[in-house]
Amino acid sequence: MINVLTFILIFLINNTSNEPDNRIITTLKYSSKKYARPTVVNGVPAKWGQVPFIVSIKEQLLKVSKLKKMWSNICGGTIIGPIKVLTAAHCFERKNFYYKKHPQKLRVVAGEFLTELIHTGNTDTTDKCQWRKITKISIHPEFYFPENDIAVVLVNEPWIFKENVDYILPARRNIDYPLGCTAAGFGSIADAMNKQRISPVLLIGQMFLLSKKNCSSIWEMNMDKFICTYSYMSDISYGDSGGPLICKGTKDPTERQQKKNALLVGVVSGKNFDKTSIFTRVASFRQWIDKEAPTI
C-alpha cells in the first residue's frame, strides 16, 4: 500500500505544474505582452550562506497528509528589510491577479534551496529555513509587462537574520554596472527553447551585462528602466521571475552601507529568444520602493 501511495505522490508531483506561460517578448516597442518566463541556465547549485537574501515564493501544489502540503516555487524574491521582499509584478499577474487579491494563500521561504517542499505552511523558524505568510502585495501602479515589472511583498513576521537568511540593499544610483554580476533562482535548467527540466535546487549563474546605451540600441527604444544581459554563457529562462541580479563594485554609495559589498541592482523579468534577457532596474524604482516599504 505504501508503494502505491508513493507512486501516486510522485506521479502527481511530476504531472502537476503552475499555470503555463509561453509568452515571448518580440521587442518592447511592438510588444503584445509576450515573454518567456525566466530561470538560471548553465548555473551551479548555491552553497550554504552564499545568497542568504534570496527567497522562494511558493503556492500550494497538493495535500500530502491531513496537516502537510506540497509547496512549489512560483517566483523568486529578495529580502530587503525585516519584513520586506522585492520581486516581479508579473509573478502575481495570472488568473486576473488572484494572488494579489489573496496573498494569504502564498508562502515565502528563506534559507532553503529546494524548489518543492512538504510543510504545514505555518509560520516557522528553524536553523535550516524560515517560513512566512504574506500580508500584503504592492504592485507598481503602472505595471504593464514588461514595463514597471516590480512588486513589494510584506510578510507576517520579521526574518531572523543569520548566516543563511539575511537582507541586501537595493541600488539607488542609475548607472552602468560592472560587466560580470550574479543572478540566482529556482526553476528549469534547460533553455526556454528546449524541453523543460525543473532544477530541484537553487542555482546561481554569472551574468554579463550590456551598457544602457547598447541595451537601448538592441531594443530600439529607451531602456533606462531595464538591465540587459548577454545570453551566450549563463542566462535566465523558465521559472525564476522575481529573483535577484547582484553586482559588486558598483560605485553606488549604497553598496558601502553594508558589510556584504554587494548590491541588488535588478529583478528578473523576462527574456527574448533573439535579443537579450532583461531585468527590472531597481535604481529606477528606488523612490517607489522606499514609499511602499522603507528599507533598513
TrEMBL record:
The keyword Protease applies. Coiled coil: none annotated. GO terms for biological process: proteolysis. Residues 1-18 form the signal peptide. Gene3D superfamilies: Trypsin-like serine proteases. InterPro entries: Peptidase_S1_PA, Peptidase_S1_PA_chymotrypsin, Peptidase_S1A, Ser/Thr_Proteases_Immune/Dev, Trypsin_dom, TRYPSIN_HIS, TRYPSIN_SER. The keyword Hydrolase applies. Keywords: Disulfide bond, Hydrolase, Protease, Serine protease, Signal. GO terms for molecular function: serine-type endopeptidase activity. PROSITE patterns: TRYPSIN_DOM, TRYPSIN_HIS, TRYPSIN_SER. Residues 40-294 form the Peptidase S1 domain. Pfam families: Trypsin. CDD domains: Tryp_SPc. It comes from the Eukaryota. PANTHER family: TRYPTASE-RELATED. Belongs to the peptidase S1 family. CLIP subfamily. This is Peptidase S1 domain-containing protein. It comes from Diatraea saccharalis.
